[in-house]
Amino acid sequence: MRIEEMNREPEMLYAGHNACPGCGAALAVRYLTKALGANLALVLTASCWSIITGMPPLTALKCPILHCPFPSAGSVGSGVRRGLNVKGMHDTTVVVLAGDGGTFDIGLQALSGAAQRNEDYIFVCYDNEAYMNTGMQTSSATPFGARTNTAPYPLFKEGQKKDIMRIMAAHSVPYAATATVAFPEDLENKLKKAQEIRGFRFIHILSPCPPGWGTESSDTIHLSRLAVSTGFFPLYEIINGVSWKMTCQPEGKRTPLKDYLSSQRRFKQMEDIRVDALQEEVDHDWEMLMERIAASKGCE
Ligand SMILES: Cc1ncc(C[n+]2csc(CCOP(=O)(O)OP(=O)(O)O)c2C)c(N)n1
Ligand code: SF4
Ligand SMILES: [Mg+2]
Prior knowledge:
Blueprint: H1 3-8, H2 24-36, E1 40-45, H3 48-53, E2 65-68, H4 73-86, E3 93-99, H5 100-105, H6 108-116, E4 122-127, H7 164-170, E5 175-180, H8 184-196, E6 201-206, H9 210-213, H10 220-229, E7 235-239, E8 243-248, H11 257-261, H12 272-295
Parallel strand pairs: 1-2, 1-3, 3-4, 4-6, 5-6
Antiparallel strand pairs: 5-7, 7-8
The chain binds thiamine diphosphate, iron/sulfur cluster and magnesium ion.
Iron/sulfur cluster binds next to helix 3 and helix 9.
């Protein structure tokens, strides 16, 4: 479906929600609801999104939402799916929505259990690369060099971003994919594909966050696009943990990573030598991804 058609799909996110202007996570979920349709049950962890939608009766989303404790989203999703099945509501799509903190860190144990049991729902992680709702603390999704409010001296994240997609692939889940808001058609295709598949499905959406990243609200789409064209956040899908496929390839040469970093205040203190180190890491991850894609051609 083209973006114009998508915009004509019924809105499930009411105007007047509580997201900051330019919030990538709000846009991601708006597209998600358009792609998956109205017959949706949402499980939501503590996060910016619990605030964006607000508490009943003033909730901003037009579908049932179950707010759940941080670490339990993976299990609550399993329970909701099984409960709906008992009631014969097999057509209702169950989506667990969690931030990177609720996915990469605090929710990882229940997520791993549900993925391993191949529970039948879609787990969506909107990744703004920190615990934003509580004031921008480091998560294991925060990239190297990014400033957060809990990074010890020298005040930026020193380790690498955790590779959640390889963790999901290691669980051999039927479907896992990356997406971001600058490519709504790619995002929609992946969600619709996930909706058709049974078993555990995982969608990882990079979602720019203007206050947390130190960017203008008008830059959200540009940054999301740069994340892809630099190779910092490639768009791909993995079937059954073995078949890796690129869905949106940057045209020509990849854009230098410094173009992505320079417009974000969270990377402002980064010296050139660290920018070069991060570029090397992105180049290395890119090569590894290309090798996996090439190697899996025989698995299709
Ligand atoms: C067990 C537990 N620990 C901490 C909190 C406080 N808390 C609420 S939202 C939040 C941040 C969530 O971060 P993330 O999952 O990345 O979502 P974001 O806020 O970035 O959207 C935290 C730490 C909590 N509610 N429960
Ligand atoms: S802090 Fe970031 S993720 Fe949270 S509502 Fe604002 S823009 Fe969205
Ligand atoms: Mg977050």
